[in-house]
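Input chain follows. Return structure tokens only.
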Amino acid sequence: MTSWMHGSFPGHEVNIVFSRGLSLDALTTGLRELRREPLAHGEANGWAWAVHDMFDNEIEDYDGVDYRRLCPQGTELVVFVTEPCSAKAHGPAFDYYRDGRLTLGFSFEDIGQRVGENPDHLSAELLAAGLIGPGASCESADTDDDHDCFDHHHDDEGRLVRTIADAFGLPSPPLTREVVREAGAPIAPGTFVTYAKGLDLPTLATVLAEAGYPARTQGESAGWSWATHDAAALPGRGTAVADLARDITGFRYEERFGGPGRVETVFLATTPACECPHGQHYMVPHCPEHPFQFLHCRGGFEESYFNVGRRRESRRSGDLLLRELLDAGIVGRYTPAYDADPDFNADGAVTIRIVMDHFGLPAPS
């Protein structure tokens, strides 16, 4: 029950947010506006949920998230801070917001010290579970000199999580999202697509045209501007288009766009993955003909990139999409879809859909 509380996102200290009354799109968009990129998200049991890094190390933002900004009138938020200070082994923390105000909050280390507008909001459930009140203390600690309460620490923590989850009707862990395995790629073959957040469509189109890559089609939706190119019309220049998608997020354009860190891009290519010997290794530049099929860029750097289909996702830089790839059985030890059909995801369509869903990218026309 508590496997999603510790270590489910290796290398990340995460918060888990459940929202009722706020759509999944609104939740993920709001987290991004607070500089917290969702690592995974989904919907179940009437709740939208998202997992995000507790801090943003990239911009040295180590302050807590002001979840009140994600909790307008008529909305509820349940928040688990899974690793408040992993270096000091502090226990998780829990907060419940309603109508933009903190109703209840406490640390797992001291449930007796509850705060908020109604510290007794869950007291009946906690009392019934023996987590507070006269029966909450460990009797063995007083009678057995060899007893170590830490031996049942994780069981106690699991009981607390189950009590909270049952009280609110939260989706049952493990938190996974359904992957739609539709046939065919959501983007036409032989296409380059550049998505930009933080740039309006006229600006994106102008930058591409100035570089010699006028868009074939273009549009603006869901907070993203996008432009497509026909790969056949740009022989030997695919990597250059991908490089431009990276560069417009960096210092070369920051003065033009109003300052650093304002632009985020995603580049997708439905051209064949590079088969050149050096193209099999993600840290070595590809040939000019074959850009990486997925890149996510901020601050002038590729934060994550890889090729798609036929298990190429395992040779990647960055683990931003690792949870989704594991859930879909595309990477990791558990890959039943590949076992049943060796041609599963051969064209990378499932992976492309995962990328588009993760970032909320509109389908280009």
